[in-house]
């Protein structure tokens, strides 16, 4: 998840880097919708080829492609196995390819768009909501922070799981979940303090 | 240097059904030195004292002002003057990559995104992190993370930097690196630390114990006072 959503922006000057954020987001939405709606294994191959081409156009490093694919792979394998069981091999292959395509399409967006570009775009898009009392900067920052918080939250989950294991409590959900929730809330408070200290949200 | 003024500033927190607990007793100080150290045991109240200086903690009574500006009534203006560096940089770094985190600090002051990027890269270069601009903040070492957190603070050009135990989580080499960066700053520095070597480099050191400033003077005197205190308690 973190591989897909954060820490992956690769600066560059490709056509994908130069496209406006709005065009990229709209393109991702249309492509994702097509991948989900069109139910045909031959089209699944075409979509995978298109998303691979997009990744190549954006010069997304192979290492990032592999890490993103690895993140999706487990879900894709499990989902495909169920599809095989229920509907047969063709449906399983289609599901597997579709999930890989969706992951790659999202990766091409995150790799060619910095979070700050995304925040700027969200701020612009949320501007009309000012009339109903919504602060566009705050909306955009909230989205960015949510994305940014994912790797940290995953790290806390891993540490808490290891701590439970070290105490021989890895089969006790309470020994894992309670400290995890407490640490996530504490981290949220700390991050809030840090943002406050940087004057973010003062205006 | 701007004057940091505490006039009988105290912090109390309510305890459910048991009245209040004093975190910091009424404290009056005038701090004008370039580098001010704050030392004391865990839970003594030194972090609360530091957090009062940019409004992260509000005084329950008394007043705190920075360069004549009240930290409660003029909080936003005070935060523009006082940068705050936390113990754990992981809590402070909220964007995926180093340059994006610095850009977040600059969002308020630099509206043009290209200019913001250029300025952020400059801040990273000035803090020895140019090679890590596009690295994930999670891939940095502890020392690099703390330097990045500090760079995020310095990007705002504060006149005072408050650092709350910035070296506690670091090894000796990184402690020296972060310490050298902090002591190389032109800004006024308020350094809360357990590292007595760093405290000894300050111009004035406060010792906090049991919610009170129990010593205020030269670094040598403060370190001796604190060491005696620990020896007696130990």
TrEMBL record, chain A:
The chain crosses the membrane at residues 20-38, 45-62, 68-87, 99-119, 139-157. It comes from the Bacteria. One of its GO terms (cellular component) is plasma membrane. Pfam families: CbiQ (PF02361). InterPro entries: ABC/ECF_trnsptr_transmembrane. Keywords: Membrane, Transmembrane, Transmembrane helix. Its main location: membrane. It is found in: Membrane. It is a multi-pass membrane protein. This is Biotin transport system permease protein. It comes from Nocardioides alpinus.
From TrEMBL, chain B:
Residues 4-232 form the ABC transporter domain. GO terms for cellular component: ATP-binding cassette (ABC) transporter complex. CDD domains: ABC_cobalt_CbiO_domain1. It holds the Pfam family ABC_tran. Keywords: ATP-binding, Nucleotide-binding, Transport. InterPro entries: AAA+_ATPase, ABC_transporter-like_ATP-bd, ABC_transporter-like_CS, ABC_transpr_CbiO/EcfA_su, ECF_ABC_transporter_ATP-bd, P-loop_NTPase. The keyword ATP-binding applies. The keyword ATP-binding applies. GO terms for molecular function: ATP binding; ATP hydrolysis activity; ATPase-coupled transmembrane transporter activity. PANTHER family: ENERGY-COUPLING FACTOR TRANSPORTER ATP-BINDING PROTEIN ECFA1, HEAVY METAL TRANSPORTER. Belongs to the ABC transporter superfamily. This is ABC transporter ATP-binding protein. The lineage of its organism: Bacteria, Bacillati, Actinomycetota, Actinomycetes, Propionibacteriales.
């Amino acid at each position: 998840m973190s591989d897909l959503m954060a820490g992956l922006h690769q600066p560059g000057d490709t056509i994908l880097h130069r496209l406006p954020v709005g065009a990229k987001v709209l393109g991702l939405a249309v492509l994702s919708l097509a991948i989900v709606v069109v139910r045909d294994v031959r089209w699944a191959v075409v979509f995978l080829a298109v998303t691979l081409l997009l990744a190549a156009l954006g010069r997304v490093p192979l290492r990032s492609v592999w890490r993103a694919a690895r993140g999706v792979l487990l879900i894709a394998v499990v989902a495909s196995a169920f599809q095989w069981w229920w509907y047969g091999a063709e449906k399983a292959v289609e599901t597997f390819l579709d999930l890989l395509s969706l992951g790659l399409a999202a990766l091409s967006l995150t790799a060619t768009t910095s979070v700050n570009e995304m925040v700027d775009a969200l701020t612009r898009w949320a501007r009309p909501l000012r009339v109903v009392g919504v602060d566009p900067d705050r909306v955009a920052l909230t989205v960015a922070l949510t994305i940014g918080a994912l790797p940290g939250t995953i790290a806390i989950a891993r540490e808490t799981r290891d701590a439970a294991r070290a105490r021989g409590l890895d089969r006790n959900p309470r020994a894992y979940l309670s400290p995890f929730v407490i640490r996530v809330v504490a981290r949220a408070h700390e991050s809030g303090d840090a943002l406050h200290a940087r004057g973010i949200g003062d205006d | 240097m701007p004057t940091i003024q505490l006039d009988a500033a105290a912090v109390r927190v309510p305890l459910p059904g048991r009245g209040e607990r004093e975190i910091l007793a009424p404290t009056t100080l005038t701090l004008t030195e370039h580098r001010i150290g704050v030392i004391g045991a865990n839970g003594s109240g030194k972090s609360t004292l530091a957090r009062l200086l940019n409004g992260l903690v509000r005084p329950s009574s008394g007043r705190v002002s920075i360069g004549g500006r009240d930290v409660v009534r003029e909080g936003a203006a005070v935060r523009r003057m006082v940068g705050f560096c936390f113990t754990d940089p992981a809590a402070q770094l909220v964007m995926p990559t180093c340059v994006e985190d610095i850009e977040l600090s600059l969002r308020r002051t630099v509206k043009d995104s290209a200019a913001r990027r250029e300025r952020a890269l400059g801040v990273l270069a000035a803090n020895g992190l140019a090679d890590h601009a596009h690295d994930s903040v999670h891939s940095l070492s502890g020392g690099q993370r703390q330097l990045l957190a500090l760079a995020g603070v310095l990007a705002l050009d504060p006149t005072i930097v408050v650092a709350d135990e910035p070296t506690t989580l670091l090894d000796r080499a990184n402690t020296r690196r972060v310490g050298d960066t902090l002591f190389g700053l032109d800004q006024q520095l308020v350094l809360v630390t357990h590292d007595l070597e760093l405290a000894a480099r300050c111009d004035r050191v406060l010792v906090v114990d049991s919610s009170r400033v129990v010593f205020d003077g030269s670094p040598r005197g403060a370190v001796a006072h604190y060491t005696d205190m620990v020896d007696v308690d130990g």
